[in-house]
């Protein structure tokens, strides 16, 4: 017996240890898979998903181009009419009376538009609350999703769910649809009022309409996209780009305490309008004096960083940057990241230094805007450096990218050299230092000198035509109601909410076969 049992315990012990190691490895793999599932669930963002979907199908969701004005300017029309009528032309008194009547009509239209705009904002807030309640009822109580009691000692099988009365949910759905219908109706009326006011304002100012654009054959999508990127995302030089400095100025002045800044998506229509203005060499944000357009300004800045070519962080540095992000020691992280970014061109380094200093300023107000360094990294990490891979590898890489951006925000002064190009340093501007429109109208400027330096070169003051107006998305080349079809593009934003609507309204007033009204809408779901 002693001979036959030699090695028995050793073999049995080795087999038992192997079985235990296999079970331990299986448990670790299951825990890793569960962690990946939890990370994927935490990364769900309805607004960002809608934004990516719209960006992936620009042809289907791009707003229609405004109809070009093919007629003569109003002044030329008046001269031609006087030459045609000769001595029968109206005297100056009649012209002045018509001018006064048109100005009175314009004042009525603008007053009605302001009232409707406030009504639409209140309707949007009510709609957001109705949607939140509907989502809560769809999710059900928190106890219905708990699975802790199904495992461990004393676990009992789950009881079948009891049938629930869905009458409250159906009533909430009807209430939500009624509020949405009311909002769309209000938005349509506001679009028509804005179009009429724009036409009257153009007639009173006597500005010449732009000449009709020459027709050209359609170009391939790639060439068209490259052409649209011409001035908006032009290659960098030693001067900070105007898009970056203008967006940062507005956000730093009016958006530091805006809850959900960079997380809530802006209006696609409004961002395209702002982009088109920058393409023309203008600064459409020079006259912004409130936080009503902050989400669109943040979206424009993210769009600029995403379309910049070459990118600020080239894909060739991804592996090195991910290894740096995995370093646990902050001192080693700062040293390695500083060396890695030292290989970038100087213009890219200056833009990154300016951007991360601004993000650190934004993170300092996280108690009000709810956007600390980690939340900002989640929103801007994929924009600055897209993670490659498949499945869990991509999720892990994206987490490292977010960690890299977060730590770069926290240690930006040590990562980026502060003694190079001092003219391109970010200077903090607190919300209390912003220019008040009333003070500016009196000719006084109480901003600190540093804040004045932050205005981009060539930026003028606010426009004098409309104080307190939102960024206008209604073109000034809309025709009168009796001149045929008028295309009005409306984007309404909810102030202080996470609801963004985009509405495209096409109006036909000629009474022909195309008479009627068609509306196409796209509204991102609020992120909760």
Automatic annotation (TrEMBL):
Show where the Rho-GAP domain sits: 234-416
Chain intervals with Acidic residues compositional bias: 475-484
Q: Which domain of life is it from?
A: Eukaryota
Q: Which Gene3D superfamilies match?
A: Rho GTPase activation protein
* Region of interest (Disordered), ranges: 205-227, 432-484, 507-528
GO terms (BP aspect): signal transduction
Q: Which Pfam families match?
A: RhoGAP
Tell whether Methyltransferase is among the UniProt keywords: no
* UniProt entry keywords in alphabetical sequence: Coiled coil
The Pro residues compositionally biased stretches are 209-221
**Would you indicate the residue range of the signal peptide?**
none
Please note every region of biased composition (Basic and acidic residues).
Answer: 444-456
Coiled-coil stretches noted in the UniProt entry, renumbered to this chain: 99-133
Q: What is this protein called?
A: (African queen) hypothetical protein
Look up and give the organism this protein is from: Danaus chrysippus (African queen)
């Amino acid at each position: 017996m002693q001979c036959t049992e030699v090695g028995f315990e050793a073999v049995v012990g080795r087999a038992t240890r192997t079985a235990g190691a296999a079970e331990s490895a299986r448990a670790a793999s299951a825990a890793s898979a569960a962690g990946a599932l939890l990370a994927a669930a935490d990364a769900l963002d309805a607004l960002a998903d809608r934004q990516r979907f719209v960006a992936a199908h620009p042809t289907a969701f791009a707003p229609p181009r405004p109809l070009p004005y093919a007629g003569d300017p109003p002044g030329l029309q008046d001269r031609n009419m006087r030459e045609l009528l000769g001595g029968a032309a109206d005297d100056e008194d009649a012209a002045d009376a018509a001018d006064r009547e048109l100005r009175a009509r314009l004042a009525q239209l603008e007053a009605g538009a302001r009232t409707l705009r406030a009504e639409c904002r209140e309707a949007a807030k009510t709609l957001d609350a109705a949607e939140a309640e509907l989502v809560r009822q769809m999710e059900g109580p928190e106890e219905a999703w708990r699975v802790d009691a199904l495992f461990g000692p004393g676990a009992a099988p789950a009881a079948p769910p009891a049938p629930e009365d869905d009458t409250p949910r159906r009533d909430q759905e009807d209430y939500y649809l009624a509020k949405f219908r009311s909002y769309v109706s209000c938005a349509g009326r506001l679009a028509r009022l804005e179009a009429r006011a724009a036409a009257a304002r153009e007639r009173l100012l006597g500005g010449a309409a732009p000449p009709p654009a020459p027709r050209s054959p359609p170009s391939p999508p790639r060439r068209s996209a490259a052409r649209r990127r011409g001035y908006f995302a032009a290659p960098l030089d030693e001067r900070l780009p105007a898009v970056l400095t203008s967006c940062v100025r507005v956000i730093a002045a009016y958006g530091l305490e805006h809850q959900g800044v960079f997380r809530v998506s802006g209006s696609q229509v409004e961002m395209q309008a702002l982009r088109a203005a920058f393409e023309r060499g203008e600064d459409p944000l020079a006259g912004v004096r409130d936080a009503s357009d902050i989400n669109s300004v943040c979206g424009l800045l993210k769009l600029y960083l995403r379309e910049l070519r070459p990118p600020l962080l080239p894909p060739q540095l991804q592996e090195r940057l991910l290894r740096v992000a995995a370093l646990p020691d902050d001192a080693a992280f700062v040293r390695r990241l500083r060396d890695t970014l030292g290989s970038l061109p100087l213009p890219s380094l200056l833009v990154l230094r300016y951007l991360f200093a601004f993000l650190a300023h934004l993170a300092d107000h996280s108690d009000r805007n709810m956007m600390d360094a980690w939340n900002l990294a989640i929103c801007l990490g994929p924009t600055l450096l897209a993670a490659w891979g498949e499945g869990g590898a991509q999720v892990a890489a994206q987490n490292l990218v977010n960690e890299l951006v977060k730590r770069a925000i926290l240690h930006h002064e040590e990562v980026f050299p502060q003694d190079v190009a001092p003219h391109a340093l970010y200077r903090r501007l607190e919300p209390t230092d912003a220019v008040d429109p009333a003070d500016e109208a009196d000719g006084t400027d109480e901003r600190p000198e540093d804040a004045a330096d932050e205005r981009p070169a060539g930026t003028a003051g606010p426009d004098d035509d409309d104080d307190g107006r939102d960024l206008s998305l209604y073109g000034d080349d809309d025709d009168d109601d009796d001149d045929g079809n008028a295309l009005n593009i409306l984007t309404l934003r909810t102030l202080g909410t996470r609801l963004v609507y985009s509405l495209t309204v096409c109006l036909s007033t000629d009474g022909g076969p195309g008479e009627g009204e068609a509306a196409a809408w796209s509204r991102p779901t609020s992120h909760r």
